[in-house]
Q: What sequence folds into this?
């Protein structure tokens, strides 16, 4: 699911610029799967898929794989379309040091919404 | 080069209110029935630029959008530097009425969005006879906190960036990019702690669940319009209020989010114009 994330983000100059103050790793859990996303000044340096023995990350975003799959539709349904919508519905948890997450929230939303570009087009989805 | 002056005029009102002097900025356009517009938490009256610029609306309505104190071009009151800003239901309600009285607006219509939509419900419960009609956009009776609002006013997080980040997913998916980003820009420009202070009303002090039963839309028409993609005030939460209010009209707007008048003014106006027609020509 996130194998192509680096290309999607790194080809988006404006998005990389938005994240230029973020360096470090964060965890995306799509239960039962998980990924470590390594960021270097807004560029995705490396994406590793779990399972991990001793993962080290600054913050984690945890949800079920099915919720992420709906989130990554080209045009998600209401309530499935935004990280905070999932948080409000109790389907997603933010964990760890939330300072870098909140300080880079617009950037991280852009990163995590980037896989929508690979979903079947809106017309096809409908 | 092309250039065109918009019909909107901006002015300042100097207002003594509850022992403090406020300098309140408002914009207006049109003639006829006064229509006061209330912006969302952490934003300002520019959200109503589409309504203020709509010739069909301003033919029959004097549209007035003011910035709440601390928002947009309205100054905070003297001594603000010593206060923790926390918007309360009673202050907000009294301030809107004081603004209407200061401009000598007779039985205006009030339309408010989000915190403004909540406020409209309080006006409907307590002051229905003062208004010709009330329009709640993204109006619900209560929202329980679902994230830690401390992050909105924090030395280690840029306030403008995080406020825009928090609300970005409340814009509907079909919003034109220019309007989406202008809507976020207003959030990026908010003063420190202002969005957070407004949310005190939205999530703590403005719980109206016990007052909804007092609303009767037959005394003062109540229209509730909510965007499909709003998860802060969801369609179900607006429908819950509408079901409790005799005579209320509830309209769910497909594809729109929490900021309909700002994120997609044209599409919003398609929903609003028939409502305003009903207000202008009842029966």
A:
């Amino acid at each position: 699911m996130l194998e192509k994330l680096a290309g999607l983000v790194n080809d988006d100059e404006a998005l990389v610029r938005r994240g230029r103050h973020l360096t470090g790793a964060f965890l995306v859990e799509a239960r039962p799967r998980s990924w470590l996303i390594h960021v270097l000044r807004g560029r995705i340096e490396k994406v590793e898929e779990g399972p991990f023995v001793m993962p080290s990350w600054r913050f984690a975003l945890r949800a079920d794989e099915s919720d992420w799959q709906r989130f990554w539709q080209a045009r998600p349904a209401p309530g499935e379309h935004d990280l905070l919508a999932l948080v409000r519905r109790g389907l997603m948890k933010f964990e760890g040091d939330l300072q870098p997450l909140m300080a880079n929230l617009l950037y991280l939303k852009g990163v995590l919404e980037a896989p929508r570009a690979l979903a079947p087009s809106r017309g096809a989805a409908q | 080069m092309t250039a065109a002056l918009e019909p909107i005029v901006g002015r300042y009102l100097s207002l003594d209110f509850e022992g403090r002097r406020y300098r309140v900025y408002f914009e207006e356009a049109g003639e006829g029935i006064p229509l006061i517009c209330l912006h969302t938490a952490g934003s300002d009256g520019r959200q109503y630029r589409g309504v203020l610029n709509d010739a069909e609306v301003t033919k029959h309505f004097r549209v007035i959008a003011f910035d709440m104190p601390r928002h947009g071009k309205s100054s905070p009151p003297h001594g603000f530097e010593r206060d923790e800003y926390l918007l309360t239901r009673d202050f907000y309600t009294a301030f809107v009425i004081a603004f209407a009285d200061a401009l000598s607006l007779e039985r205006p219509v009030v339309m408010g969005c989000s915190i403004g939509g909540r406020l409209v419900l309080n006006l409907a419960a307590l002051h229905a006879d003062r208004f010709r009609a009330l329009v709640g956009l993204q109006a619900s009776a209560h929202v329980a906190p679902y994230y830690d609002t401390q992050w909105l006013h924090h030395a280690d997080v840029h306030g403008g960036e995080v406020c825009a980040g928090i609300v970005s997913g409340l814009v509907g998916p079909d919003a034109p990019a220019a309007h989406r980003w202008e809507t976020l820009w207003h959030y990026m420009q908010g003063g420190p702690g202002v969005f957070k202070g407004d949310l005190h009303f939205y999530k703590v002090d403005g719980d109206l669940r016990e007052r909804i039963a007092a609303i009767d839309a037959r005394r003062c028409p109540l229209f509730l319009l909510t965007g499909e993609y709003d998860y802060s005030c969801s369609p179900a939460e607006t429908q819950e209020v509408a079901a409790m209010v005799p005579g209320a009209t509830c309209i769910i707007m497909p594809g729109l989010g929490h900021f309909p008048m700002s994120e997609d003014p044209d599409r919003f106006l398609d929903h609003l114009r028939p409502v305003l027609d009903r207000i202008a020509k009842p029966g």
